[in-house]
Task: structure prediction
Amino acid sequence: MADPNKVDPIHQFQITDIVSFGEGGISFTNSALFMVLSVGVIALYLLLSTQKRSLVPNRVQLVSEMLYEFVAKMVSDSAGKAGMKFFPFVFSLFMFVLVANMFGMIPFFFTFTSHIIITFALALLVFVVVIVYGLYKNGLKFLKLFVPSGVPGYVLPIVVPIEVVSFLSRPISLSVRLFANILAGHITLKVFAGFIVTLGGLGFLGWLGALLPLVMTVAITALEFLVAALQAYVFAVLTSMYINDAIHPSH
Amino acid sequence: MAGSAQDIIIVAQAESGDALQQGEVVAPAEEHAAEGEHAAPADAGATDTHASTEAHAEVFPPFDPASFGGQLLWLAITFAALYFLMSRVALPRIGSILETRRTRIEGDLKEAERLRQETEKAAAAYEAALAEARKNAHGIAEETRAGIKADIDGRRADVEAGLAKRVAEAEARIQADKDAALANVGSIAAETAQALVAKISGSVSAAEAKAAVAAASKE
Result:
């Protein structure tokens, strides 16, 4: 960059090739690198920390156990005992999104959850799993999901379309929630950090003025850590609840 | 048209950030804009080349469809690997650790409960033994006391019986002596009377003396 005061908040979402496999083929990008890194970090941590299988856990093992019990409780609270069949799925989703979001908080790291295609693919996966398992488990009774029990018949023509629309919008809301939170957070952070640089270039008064965005940046960074964890949690909780619909369609 | 082309170029230059290029690219764009509608086709042709060279820059990267295929492929690979690792290796391992710990704790608790019950049983047995011993001790004491009492009573009875017997014997002897003495009194008196009479008035027969004494003693 020739002009250091020019801050481009969008540049961080740019996908760049790291290794290309021929012209027009699939290349290994920064996005792919961080997906691989996330999976690697999750798997290595969980496997290495539990290597000793201590009866009395040390700290690293305790973290793995707490993550396990946290997600297990989440799934069994939302979807009951039958839902535990999907525990590895929800756990993988939670850890994948959590670690991706947390990687995103490290400067110069790429955040692949800020790309709608990734979050939408994950949400669609949840959606498809719910539909396929719901139909496999309950057959046509799965359609009861759209007919709430205890609703008088003459209201059904209004309620059923609403239920159908809300069901169909799930992958969109699930994916956009995660994607938009991460994207907006990163842009805000970059813009405020950019203000510091721009104001800092204006001399002494600029330095004074830069204090405000500096404080804001620190505060937003803290907020973004919260958002990163919270969005992973929300994604996993909603997945558990949707899975509950697949198992117990009549609500 | 010109306005949108300008936007594209500004985005492109912001991306490249090249100040020199900025001057070169923006200037012609402004000239074209000034020329108006007439120059638009030529302008579009010129910016097309810019747009194609900076194709990835003009789209907001998260919405760039060109990246979708690659990202989806890598997402599928990595997420499948993660799911496989979690469901086959990591989660069963953590689950077994937790399960082992739970059964171990339950076993320990059960063992502790068993030991506690055993302790209680032993304490109860001890209490029972103590009560039994106390009862036995009481019985023995009672028995001893009764035995001693019986012994004392027996001896006292023996002694008393012996004493009574000796008293009775003594009394009997006294009575016999008394009887003998009393029996002798008559004959002594008769002899005395005979002797006295003989001294005073001559001899008198023993039988007369006896009869006289007996008559005198009756008076």
